[in-house]
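Appendix C: a fully annotated inverse folding record. The material below is reproduced so that readers can follow the format used throughout the book. The structure is listed first as tokens, followed by the designed sequence.
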């Protein structure tokens, strides 16, 4: 039975939880994280790579995705410390559900107010998520637009950069330099 946890007070600093496959992380992820930091009054953005996909999507090895996501956060920080990476999902029961990840992060970080960021492409499927009503009530999702999906009023639509297209291009030996920052790509390939 899921444990009900009271919402965190609004006065706490806001940390946005940016979950995803990061298969690999790319400039679209970086743009969303920077936009959150610059325009939404958040103190931090934490990338949380999924250890495994709840709907069975095939993923590159965990350590490879984690390493590349850490490189993305380091690039965004550029001497600061607002972008972080949590490897929490490696220790959670399978399958990995967002609500479980959020609840565990909140219990370990009572000094922060956590919010979830969700792309408009994923938002269309949000009703299929475990305890999605509670995610909405307790973690106030920020829905960001993605090109090719319905627009979100007052929110930019970010470019439709696809990790699967990036993987396909890499498999064909094609350049992805405009899609994946160099430091991230080195971690992904290396």
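Designed amino acids, in order:
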């Amino acid at each position: 039975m899921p444990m009900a946890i009271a919402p965190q007070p609004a006065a706490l600093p806001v940390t946005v939880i940016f979950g995803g496959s990061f298969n690999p992380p790319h400039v679209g992820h970086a743009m969303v994280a920077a936009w959150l930091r610059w325009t939404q009054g958040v103190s931090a953005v934490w990338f949380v790579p999924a250890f495994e996909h709840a709907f069975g999507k095939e993923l590159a090895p965990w350590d490879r995705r984690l390493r590349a996501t850490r490189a993305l956060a380091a690039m965004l920080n550029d001497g600061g410390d607002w972008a972080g990476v949590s490897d929490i999902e490696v220790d959670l029961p399978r399958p990995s559900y967002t609500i479980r990840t959020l609840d565990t992060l909140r219990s370990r970080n009572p000094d922060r107010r956590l919010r979830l960021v969700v792309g408009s492409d994923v938002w269309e499927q949000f009703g299929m998520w475990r305890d999605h009503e509670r995610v909405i009530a307790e973690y106030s999702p920020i829905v960001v637009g993605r090109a090719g999906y319905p627009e979100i009023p007052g929110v930019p639509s970010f470019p439709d950069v696809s990790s699967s297209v990036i993987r396909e291009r890499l498999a064909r030996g094609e350049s992805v330099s405009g899609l994946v920052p160099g430091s991230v790509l080195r971690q992904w390939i290396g």
